[in-house]
Amino acid sequence: MVCKYIGNPLLINNHKFDLRIYVLLTSVEPLRIYVYNEGLARFASEPYDSTTKGAKKNLYSHLTNYSINKKSETFQQNKSVLERDHGNKWSLSALQSHLEGLGINMQPVWERIYDAIIKSLIAVEPQLQGGMKKILNSGARQNCFELFGFDVLLDSYFKPHVLEVNFSPSLSADSPLDYHIKSNLLVDTLNLVGLKRNPKKRGNNSNIGGAQRFRNGGTYYGG
What we know:
alpha+beta; D-amino Acid Aminotransferase, Chain A, domain 1; 6 helices; about 20% strand
């Protein structure tokens, strides 16, 4: 494993941030990927400082992990789903609106992010195929899927860097914004993979209700 520190991160209000992007894999042969059209922008709780002596030891300035920054005295928790751009955690759509308000064309930025996501999954395609064959050999032939949480950092040139890929990402909700985004994500995921109601339960066999918000058309990638 090779790690490289990104010394020129894109900053907002002089704070470092990363993107949590949810990616749904519904097929390996052919490779079929959906990118959710909402997610989270997670901010460091203290201003970015790369010049002061000893500044790199300040975890609250250089790391964007929620589990770390929530312990900071300066961390601001979201208190309302209507405040999508408040505190240390924004919605992805609020971040995009903010950058577009600064005159940034987000289309090429998203294209670079999609490219990074696709290449990341292609890199482990043999392992994905092996895992899929084990599942199919076990007799399970429906609703086989995986949800990933991609953590992406943008640098000052708007180039995306994949920090890590989370297998079965945490869907816990500590704020109204968390709950709103992740509950819709769950509903849309189950709809998209075609999960049916249990026929032994009361009700019909229709899909679980909810609008699908996974990116389609120009933002859908599949074989």
